[in-house]
Amino acid sequence: MNRNKIEETIFKILMINSTIIILIILLLILLTIILKGLPAMDWSMISQTPKGGYYLGKEGGILNAIIGSLYLAGGATILAFIISLPIVLYFKVYAKKNSKIVMFTRFSLDVLWGVPSIVYGAFGFTIMLYFGLKASLLGGIITVSLLILPIMTRAMDETIKMIPIELLEASYSLGANRIETAFKVVVRQALPGILTAILISFGRGIGDAASVMFTAGFTDNIPTSLLDPVATLPLAIFFQLNTPFPEVQERAYASAFILTVIILIISIVSRFLIKKYTKYIIK
Amino acid sequence: MELKTHISVQNLNVFYGNEQALKNISIDIPDKKITAIIGPSGCGKTTLLKSFNRLINTIDEVKVSGKVFVDGENIFEKKADVNRIRKKMGLLSQKPYPLPMSIFDNVAYGPRIHGMNDKKKLSAIVEKYLIEANLWDELKDRLHSPASKLSVGQQQRLCLARGLAVEPEIILGDEPTSALDPRSSKHIEERFLALKNDYTVIIVTHILRQAKRLADYVVFLYLGELIEHGPAKEIFENPQMEMTKEYIKGVIS
Ligand SMILES: Nc1ncnc2c1ncn2[C@@H]1O[C@H](COP(=O)(O)OP(=O)(O)OP(=O)(O)O)[C@@H](O)[C@H]1O
Ligand SMILES: [Mg+2]
Questions:
Q1: Mutational pocket test of ligand 1: of B12, B15, B45, B62, the residue with most ligand atoms within 8 Å of the beta carbon
Q2: pLDDT tens digits for A203-242?
Q3: At the topology level of CATH, where does A44-280 sit?
Q4: What CA–CA distance (Å, rounded) separates A80 from A74?
Q5: pLDDT given for residue B38 in this prediction
Q6: Which residues of B sit within 8 Å Cβ distance of A?
Q7: pTM
Q8: Given B101, B109, B147, which is nearest A174 (Cβ)?
Q9: Measured between alpha carbons, how far is residue B202 from residues A171, B29, B30, B56, B73 in Å?
Q10: Share of chain B above pLDDT 90, in %
Q11: Which ipTM score applies to this complex?
Q12: What is the DSSP string of chain A?
């Protein structure tokens, strides 16, 4: 047979194999947390905070960590978005094409992207000590927002970079200024990409343990102020898994399952939104 | 300063970095007529057109000297208000670029930018200019669907309606039919002929037959220089310059 056909067959097999491997891994993860967590899974897990002796296998749930994680990751995502949107709009609409600042900023963000989250945790902790801030929701939000800032900025930057310059010119030629063009045209054209960036940043933020270990603290209560310490799901999983009691370890898997479901729900909702706004994109 | 025409170009030079794209161009563009800018690829047609509404200033390494008067105001002067100048001109690009929003919002974009918020008036404006662009009958039932879903020909007419909605005096077109099929091209050409009673129309084209069909006035550029300009009839039937003759005969292209 001819070479082309053989090559194509080989690649086809490779691609199918890779796809299957991914699916199997995903399935195994889900199966593990479901099977191991199911016995511990009951309504009180998601409706109650830990009662005395929860970590010894007594009553209660992890509502504190669910709410805490949502507060923390939500706050960090909003904060990171407020900082990163102006950056990427500046890159596209104001900065010169071969601007040194833009190139340097992109490079820095790529480096920051690769920095392990424990380093952000240590950094956040140092900053908090300096300002006399105790481990709290606020400290966690700031640290996690630093962690996800490079991810969000670069992800948005990549989609916004692709927008054809003619689209901006169309807006300018109608008499729009740069700010109007940035918010009414660039943001709308990039909306699906922006939503994706928000989604992956939120996912990264809600799932990270190392950055919140020293900065957010841990508590059995639901925080009522930004300065209260806050529990998070990754740390709750960690603590439960670290107990010698099998029934508490089961709860760790149940918590992992809850975390996965939260991420799943957010993915589905954002897919839906992304689809809604993709219709409007000009190709 | 007294000027006879909407657009008057005086000693215009444009450089991209060190390369000179336009060399000492001086020309008055006649009002309420169709002017065609013709010439071989790379001769500076787009550059000249984008000078009229200062879109070349969005390119970073560009340098401009000379003057372009629009209604008596030198638009390259420091204190010139670019957004107000651009509002005087509608632009059609080579490939249509509708905005990433609904058909209605596309046409309403310009008026909204310029402070119009009255819903009824906006609806009236959208209807009026979709009619003028010959799109109303096709689209009146789906004004709120995305503009991206239209055919390329419809998109170009939508871009025309969008440009007209800011009530310009001048319409600029950079090869506005080159991405379109013959029928859609004809549509756009008909619009231009209808619009020239009320607007000054300037189009770039490399299709000589199109220039002959549309133009009242012709500007011939070659390698950044203005070789010849004049009423279309004269340029096509009795060109003065050797270069123009050759281009019209199709020797250089
Ligand atoms: N952004 C730019 N940067 C550098 N040089 C440019 C740029 N745009 C155009 N040029 C150069 O300026 C000259 C004139 O270009 P222009 O686009 O005005 O030509 P044109 O007549 O419109 O050509 P075409 O018929 O191919 O569209 C060309 O030599 C081109 O390479
Ligand atoms: Mg051109």
A1: B45
A2: 999 999 999 999 999 999 999 999 999 999 999 999 999 9
A3: MetI-like fold (1.10.3720)
A4: 10
A5: 94
A6: 53, 55, 58, 60, 83-84, 86-87, 89-91, 93, 95, 97-102, 109-110, 113-114, 146-149, 159, 162-163, 166, 172
A7: 0.88
A8: B109
A9: 19, 8, 9, 16, 19
A10: 73
A11: 0.90
A12: --HHHHHHHHHHHHHHHHHHHHHHHHHHHHHHHHHHHGGG--HHHHH-PPPTTGGGT-S---HHHHHHHHHHHHHHHHHHHHHHHHHHHIIIIIS-TT-HHHHHHHHHHHHHHHS-HHHHHHHHHHHHHHHTPPSSHHHHHHHHHHHHHHHHHHHHHHHHHTS-HHHHHHHHTTT--HHHIIIIIIHHHHHHHHHHHHHHHHHHHHH--HHHHTTT---SSPPSSTTS----HHHHHHHHHTSS-HHHHHHHHHHHHHHHHHHHHHHHHHHHHHHHHHTT---
Distance, CA of B174 to CA of B163 (rounded, Å): 14
Each residue's pLDDT tens digit, B108-155 = 999 999 999 999 999 999 999 999 988 999 999 999 999 999 999 999
Domains (ranges, CATH) in chain B?
1-88+169-253 (3.40.50.300), 98-167 (no CATH)
Nearest CA to ligand 1 atom 3: B16
Q: Where are the domains of chain A?
A: 3-40, 44-280
